[in-house]
Design brief:
Helix content is 34%, strand content 27%. The protein is built from 14 helices and 23 strands. The strands form 7 sheets. A 7-stranded mixed beta sheet has the order 3-9-10-16-13-12-11, with helices on both faces. Strands 20-19-21-22-23 form a 5-stranded mixed beta sheet, with helices on both faces. A 3-stranded antiparallel beta sheet has the order 5-4-6. The radius of gyration is 26 Å and the shape is globular. The mean pLDDT is 95. The chain binds glycyl-adenosine-5'-phosphate (GAP). The site of glycyl-adenosine-5'-phosphate has 19 residues, from strand 10, strand 13, strand 16 and helix 10.
């Protein structure tokens, strides 16, 4: 087993053991490519979403929020091009009948194939390399020709005929369509003027053919998307601005600069005029974290034509009428979550001992402060520790722990990335102070309870 696979296995195991991520429906033998966030996972995911939301809406004056429904008229997915063009190439092993995503299969054999290539292009590469490519499950080299497989997930919502394949409704394949179809509503109600953006966080669903690599590619996932509406001639300017802003977001989360890079798409998806991905160096290689796309006027034009509603913009100052262009920033919550964990995960030797520590940015840490009474059988220590815990929990997510020796309690908190541990001992009763222990350096210092709140505010907020 190589080191990267070993690191990935350790992260997956930590996620399960410490309540970050659970495989879905585990007591029923699982449910492929779906995961649940556990108690610490939901805190970390919420912290990521909150930071994204604040940086994209609250800290700007040109972006407003939206929360559109998952279900929308099926006409939207016709207009957007997803019913026809939203697909991945699928092949089937003729021996064991495993269904495989063709571009991923080629990639596993070090043959580059872009997911956005046409069916003909990818089949040509496939047949040129037939001798080299083996089924990962049975080793056979006998496959069907690659066929595009549509990724939209169908449902029977509102269809009571018993046959929903004829007139399906779809679970949304991307959140941004909800933004385009509400663009006019926002314009008319929120007193915004071009250039302006609409941001949304929400679930999306895709019938991914092969979903591996833990939460990197799942069939149900959450997106954080922002669509910025601009004058056509300003598109390149804002595109470059947003590229910089979005890259900086990951640096601000504390991700190491050497683990981030840009990837330019040569084969563009049907809606894009220009597309770059921000990639993170996962244990399984550099892979897409976020896409920044120049979508031109594709989406608003499509929805104007299909709905019969004019979605063009009338400039209130110049009376100029035009179809706005869109700059899209599209990130995944699960992928950011995984990148943050991979980046923070460390194993350290401490003398004879060792520890696993998540060196998370304190802003992201699920628990900010852990409070310990030195001994659990001393009611006076427990009482004081509870008082400290109660005074802090109003401002921060805290944890009270009186179980095991202090060393073990520190290790438990290190493993979930808690930046500060506070211990209440007998001196605390005399001096009204606590021992404050720092996660990264493991240094300990005494701090007076009068100064504690201010210290934590300065270092956590
Ligand atoms: N609206 C544009 C759009 O959806 P995308 O490149 O297909 O573009 C954007 O997806 C982001 O959504 C990706 O960069 C990734 O973070 C996340 N994402 C896409 N498919 C995913 C999946 N199956 N599982 C987890 N995250 C996914």
């Amino acid at each position: 087993m190589n080191n990267n696979q070993e690191k990935m296995d350790k992260i997956v195991s930590l996620c399960k053991r410490r309540g970050f991520v659970f495989p879905s429906s585990e007591i029923y033998e699982g449910f492929a490519a779906i995961y649940d966030f556990g108690p610490y996972g939901v805190e970390l995911a919420n912290n990521i979403k909150n930071l994204w939301w604040k940086s994209m809406t609250q800290w700007r004056d040109d972006v407003v929020g939206l929360d559109s429904a998952i279900f929308m008229s099926p006409k939207i997915w016709e207009a957007s091009g997803h019913v026809k063009g939203f697909s991945d190439p699928l092949t089937e092993c003729k021996k064991c009948h495993s269904r495989l995503r063709l571009d991923s299969l080629l990639e596993e054999h070090d043959i580059f194939a872009d997911e956005k290539m046409s069916e003909e292009e990818i089949n040509k590469i496939f047949s040129d390399n037939k001798d080299k490519i083996k089924c990962p499950n049975c080793g056979s080299k006998d496959f069907t020709e690659g066929k595009n497989f549509n990724l939209l997930v169908k449902s029977n919502l509102g269809n009571f005929t018993g046959d929903f394949t004829k007139e399906p409704t779809y679970l949304r394949g991307e959140t941004c369509q909800g933004i385009y179809v509400n663009y006019k509503n926002v314009l008319d109600s929120a007193r915004v003027k071009i250039p302006f953006g609409i941001a949304q966080i929400g679930k999306a669903f895709r019938n991914e053919i092969t979903a591996r690599q833990f939460i990197f590619r799942t069939r149900e996932f959450e997106q954080m998307e922002m669509q910025y509406f601009v004058k056509p001639e300003d598109s390149a300017k804002y595109y470059n601005e947003w590229k910089e802003i979005r890259y900086q977001f990951y640096l601000d989360l504390g991700i190491k600069p050497e683990n981030l890079k840009w990837h330019q798409h040569e084969n563009l998806v049907f809606y894009a005029k220009e597309a770059y991905d921000i990639e993170y160096n996962f244990p399984f290689g550099f892979k897409e974290l976020e896409g920044v796309h120049a979508r031109g006027d594709y989406d608003l034009t499509q929805h104007s034509e299909h709905s019969g509603q004019d979605l063009s913009y009338l400039d209130p100052y110049t009376n100029e009428k035009y179809m706005p262009n869109v700059v899209e920033t599209s990130a995944g919550v699960g992928r950011t979550f995984l990148a943050v964990l991979c980046d923070a995960y460390q194993e350290e030797n401490i003398g004879e001992d060792s520890r696993v520590v998540l060196k998370l940015n304190p802003k992201l840490a699920p628990i900010k402060i852990a409070v310990f009474p030195l001994l659990k059988n001393k009611p006076e220590l427990v009482k004081k520790a509870k008082e400290v815990f109660d005074s802090l929990k109003i401002n921060w997510r805290c944890e009270f722990d009186d179980n095991g020796n202090i060393g073990k309690r520190y290790r438990r908190q290190d493993e979930i990335g808690t930046p500060y541990c506070l211990t209440i001992d007998f001196d605390s009763l005399e001096n009204n102070d606590v021992t404050l222990r720092h996660r990264d350096t493991m240094k300990q210092e005494r701090i007076s309870l009068d100064k504690l709140m201010e210290y934590l505010k300065n270092n956590l907020s």
